Amino acid sequence: MTTWYGRFELPEDATGLWQAGPFQLCARRLPHEWIVSTVHGTDGLESTLDVRVPIDGPDPIEGSDLIRFAFEQPPKDVCLTPALADRPVVVSPEEPLHLPSDEQIILFISTPVWLQFSIGERFLPLLDEPTHRPTDTWFGPSTMRGELCYATRTAARMSLDNVPFRPHRVISVVQIRNRSKTSLTVEKLKIPLPNQSVFGTADGDLWTETVTLDHQEEGAMAAVRLAKGPPSNAPEASLLSGPRVPMDAGLLTRAFGGLLR
Questions:
Q1: Collapsing DSSP states into helix, strand and coil, what is residue 44?
Q2: Fewest CB within 10 A of the end CB: N or C in the chain?
Q3: Going by DSSP bridges, is the β-strand pair 114-119/23-30 parallel, antiparallel, or unpaired?
């Protein structure tokens, strides 16, 4: 098993277990209900991938959050889908990056995905949970101007070979071009994840569209562009989930002109 997501079928009185990194989900189908339990681990770098459908016996997760969903006739089909965060994510390199004039770099940044659990042929959504919830942060020039985001630190790797595989994390390719006459310092970078999609490969790698930022002059708004489809690093990847908040290019530039800080 190379992926934790996809469609599964559970007979009555059967249980399924899915683990992606630090997040575990266990679901049991009974005559008139689905019982779903979850556990959020604390290690955001956990790399465990475990899928067991079905499992003999009771729910194997101890100390979990349990939710019951009642149905007249519970559907037997379940679908697990990776989705992106419901807010932008502000990533901070472990050390600031300095980009000289007329230079460009490509960064590979990974962030945790959300797990969406749905059932039936109509994909009725029951859960939408982070596999590892980042901390909250405020991104903006003041407490009056800006927005609530998630925050995480990143190694800001510039070689894909140095990016470790973790089943609960998605990779964003970020291209930064410094078109100004002065050096550009990248201390914080806001990734517009709610406006992006998730693509998956047969090996279980997860990707978003490429984000390109063109920095023109000091104090000017950076031009932001989202590429269409999966990045060139994974051309065979297929679409798994679309954006939470679709946005056209003009709105994207205005809304995320302060991506760099």
A1: coil
A2: N
A3: unpaired
159 shares a domain with 102: yes
pLDDT, tens digit, for every residue of 215-245?
887 655 567 788 899 999 999 999 999 999 8
Answer yes or no: do 73 and 157 share one domain.
Answer: no
Structure-block tokens of residue 248: 């056209």
Query: Which alpha helices (H) appear in the chain, and where do they start and end?
Result: 249-255
Residues 198 and 111: beta-carbon distance below 8 Å: no
User: Do residue 67 and residue 94 come from a single domain?
Assistant: no
Do residues 257 and 222 make contact, with C-beta atoms less than 8 angstroms apart? yes
CA dist., res. 32 & res. 137, Å (int): 42
Report the C-alpha gap between 110 and 232 in whole angstroms: 16
Q: What is the pTM of this model?
A: 0.89
- Domain total in the chain: 2
In a domain, 192, yes or no: yes
The per-residue pLDDT for range 38-74, each reduced to its tens digit, is: 999 999 889 999 999 998 666 666 667 889 999 888 8
Residues 6+ apart with CB under 8 A from 84: 111, 113, 114, 170, 193, 194, 196, 197, 198, 208, 241, 243, 244
CA distance 96 to 81: 34
Cα–Cα distance measured from residue 225 to residue 178, given in angstroms and rounded to the nearest whole number: 15
Residue 71 lies in a domain: yes
Check whether the bond before 54 is cis (ω within 30° of 0): yes
Q: Is 194 helix (H, G, I), strand (E, B) or coil?
A: helix
